[in-house]
Task: inverse folding
């Protein structure tokens, strides 16, 4: 067990509350957190990354309460890619090297040969080595996302957290980034938790899904278990049809426009297992 | 990356030589011009001559103070700009100068300096600065979290309030007091008290060293607070410490030299243009360039219309501003960019 969330309740002063979350993440799992806007996906991620203190309950990482782990130690093992990667005029290499900061010793000001090697390797892995001398604000959205992932990998984490890594990207980059994450998960044994908006992408890439609604856990399980048309219609209030992706055999969700709905939907709406 | 270290060493060396040249220029220049050779001879001949006391009692203190304050203001500028991620922040934005000026104005108007001695001026300036720092700090603290934007807004507002109060004081004060206040607010490196200069040097250099320990934290903070925390940086502790360091530098400068504008805003930008955004070089580079810049401006201020002296703030504003606009149009950079 890598991460365990027990009876977690946390929230903001504005009143939004995430309640009674119980969840476990095993080593080398690829988990997707899904749910409608405002369901608490990002809040959960913030709780896991210690930006938000729980009002109740605990989060354990490798058996220890995360709030008991020294900050630097914690972020040697956990890396985060946020939704809007920062934009500034640093060079890509400088930016990626920032990921080594948790590993710096006290009074160490300059990166060692090892730090440089790790950052090079991570840039090569994410196919961003060719960008290394460019400045961050010259990059496209997709490249920026890749560079952020490279920086997170440079932290040499066991657990990688991503908040909507495919938001605002075209399908080439969506698939490129998720393929990369899948590869990191399969080949390098990196445990991944990512918030995803796109249910079909979540279905294709994640081993297990956690569906949140109104700050509560609604359902968790494999994509086949979670993404049924009944569940989606209940949570999202939208008529959908769920079919199998002919290649991957994962559930795929089709939307039905109002015009078609009025004509009436005939035939099976879900997958029979 | 070895290339980077060499490049940085080169920049530091270059800036040190610039500082040295400026210092020698400042030593040679004045109402009594002296060549380098003559200076050497005066030093060898030792105490007693008029030239010796011009060098060591008049010019050297100003140079040392210019070094200290120029460095301190630029350093405070770098720290604050890095912390706020806002290139337009400068040491005086936080209202510290206003507080110090208010303290000094009150001192002058109430005639305290005639009873308590001339040293009470910097002390009252420092008290005013400390008061404002505490006020701005406590107003921006929400549930133990230092709100950066709140800090900025409160600072600007307190600046306005204190400058209005100063105007009020000036409006009701006598002519000779008025002169004293205006003179102090304009800022000058004239400081006859060696002890005060030594204290200033000590504080300014130690803060340079302490702030350097946080250069990586500042680099991380340039990504934003949450991202910095994701790199294992305790942002609350870091923000507080940086705020205290910048405040101490500003309070020190203002209470010793009055208000010398523009150094803290322009110098960090210049350095950033040439050496990049990495705080490991930015902190030292800005300190050195700020020191050289202020020594140079002060030399101009005391020689241009000699025997009269211009307020050094006039020179830093005109020179710094025009150089900066020129460099910006030449290099086609954005503020805060490289």
Result:
């Amino acid at each position: 067990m890598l991460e365990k969330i027990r009876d977690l309740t946390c929230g903001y002063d504005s009143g939004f509350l995430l309640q009674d979350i119980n969840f476990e993440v095993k080593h080398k799992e690829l988990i997707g957190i899904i749910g409608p806007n405002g369901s608490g996906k990002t809040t959960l991620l913030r709780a896991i990354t210690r930006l938000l203190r729980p009002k109740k309950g605990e989060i354990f990482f490798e058996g220890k309460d995360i709030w008991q782990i020294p900050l630097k130690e914690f972020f040697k093992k956990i890396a985060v890619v946020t939704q809007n990667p920062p934009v500034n005029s640093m060079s890509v290499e400088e930016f990626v090297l920032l990921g080594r900061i948790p590993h710096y010793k006290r009074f160490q000001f300059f990166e060692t040969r090892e730090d440089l090697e790790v950052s090079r390797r991570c840039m090569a892995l994410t196919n961003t080595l060719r960008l290394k001398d460019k400045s961050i604000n010259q990059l496209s959205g997709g490249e920026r996302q890749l560079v952020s992932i490279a920086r997170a990998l440079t932290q040499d984490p066991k657990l990688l957290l991503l908040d909507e890594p495919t938001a605002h990207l075209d399908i080439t980059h969506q698939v490129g980034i998720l393929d990369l994450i899948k590869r990191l998960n399969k080949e390098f044994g990196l445990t991944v938790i990512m918030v995803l908006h796109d249910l079909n992408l979540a279905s294709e890439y994640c081993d297990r899904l956690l569906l949140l609604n109104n700050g509560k856990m609604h359902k968790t399980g494999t994509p086949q278990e979670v993404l049924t048309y009944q569940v989606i219609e209940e949570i999202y209030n939208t008529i959908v049809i769920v079919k199998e992706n002919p290649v991957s055999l994962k559930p795929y969700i089709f939307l039905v426009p109002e015009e078609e709905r009025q004509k009436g939907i005939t035939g099976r709406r879900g997958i029979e297992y | 990356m070895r290339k980077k270290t060499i490049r940085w060493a080169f920049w530091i060396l270059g800036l040190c030589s610039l500082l040295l040249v400026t210092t020698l220029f400042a030593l040679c220049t004045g109402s009594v011009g002296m060549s380098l050779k003559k200076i050497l001879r005066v030093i060898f001949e030792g105490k007693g001559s008029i030239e010796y006391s011009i060098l060591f009692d008049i010019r050297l203190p100003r140079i040392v103070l210019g070094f200290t304050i120029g460095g301190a203001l630029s350093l405070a500028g770098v720290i604050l700009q890095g912390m706020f991620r806002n290139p337009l922040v400068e040491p005086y934005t936080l209202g510290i100068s206003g507080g110090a000026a208010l303290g000094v104005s009150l001192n002058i108007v109430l005639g305290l300096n005639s009873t308590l001695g001339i040293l009470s001026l910097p002390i009252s300036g420092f008290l005013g600065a400390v008061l404002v720092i505490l006020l701005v700090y406590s107003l921006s603290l929400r549930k133990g979290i230092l709100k950066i934007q709140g800090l900025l807004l409160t600072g600007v507002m307190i600046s306005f309030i204190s400058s209005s109060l100063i105007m009020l004081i000036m409006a009701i004060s006598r002519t000779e007091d008025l002169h004293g206040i205006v003179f102090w607010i304009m800022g000058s490196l004239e400081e006859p008290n060696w002890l005060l200069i030594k204290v200033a040097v000590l504080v300014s250099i130690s803060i340079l060293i302490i702030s350097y320990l946080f250069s990586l934290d500042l680099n991380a903070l340039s990504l934003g607070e949450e991202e910095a925390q994701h790199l294992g940086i305790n942002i609350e502790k870091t923000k507080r410490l940086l705020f205290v360091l910048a405040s101490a530098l500003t309070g020190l400068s203002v209470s010793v030299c009055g208000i010398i504008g523009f150094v803290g805003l322009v110098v960090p930008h210049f350095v950033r243009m040439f050496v990049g955004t990495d705080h490991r070089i930015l902190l030292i580079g800005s300190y050195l360039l700020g020191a050289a810049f202020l020594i140079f401006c002060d030399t101009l201020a005391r020689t241009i219309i000699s025997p009269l002296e211009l307020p050094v703030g006039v020179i830093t504003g005109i020179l710094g501003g025009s150089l900066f606009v020129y460099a910006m149009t030449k290099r086609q950079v954005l503020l805060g960019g490289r």
User: Anything to note?
Assistant: The first strand of chain A starts at residue 3 and ends at 11.
